Amino acid sequence: DAMVIQNPRYQVTQFGKPVTLSCSQTLNHNVMYWYQQKSSQAPKLLFHYYDKDFNNEADTPDNFQSRRPNTSFCFLDIRSPGLGDAAMYLCATSRGGLMNTEAFFGQGTRLTVV
Amino acid sequence: AQTVTQSQPEMSVQEAETVTLSCTYDTSESDYYLFWYKQPPSRQMILVIRQEAYKQQNATENRFSVNFQKAAKSFSLKISDSQLGDAAMYFCAYRRDGSSNTGKLIFGQGTTLQVKP
Percent of chain A beyond pLDDT 90? Predict the structure, then answer.
């Protein structure tokens, strides 16, 4: 089945130690998104890629970076995780432009910072 | 800037009964989409129902239907014949329409729905 897959499901990292979360999709969608969702809160968009174009949200901290080496994969890099970065990170995809579909979400990666 | 507001942090319903979740939004745009997403505990977020703003007819998907009031900027979700599997957090979301649309979703704060057997 076509889907959005996030690895790992659970990630524990040390305070200040760089960590990378990954997302892959088999939907061949143009757009890939990274959302941060803290406990019982609404997902908050960090950034998205429209094809190769990177679009950062104005309030996304510099500590968060992203890479999209090809259509299928997108990575979220947290350069120096702080305790406040503990959250669920959701990857989502959609088609862009006039044919935009609804967003399809992965299962998320729950990040714990110790 | 667009905003989405869900004023009910928690709701509960008896199995087989009907429940309505509320959502209001604010936008100056005329073309947009509205969605309800369901997020069960520890599971992925899935689309429940979508509504195009240009359509006057309310969307329905089996036991799920919406009451879309464009002038009032209201978009409520009605779940009929509630089932235990409906227990989840429900998010109302807004998305712009048009050729420049990148599909960015703006979410409400969510409503946790409990279904009692």
Answer: 84
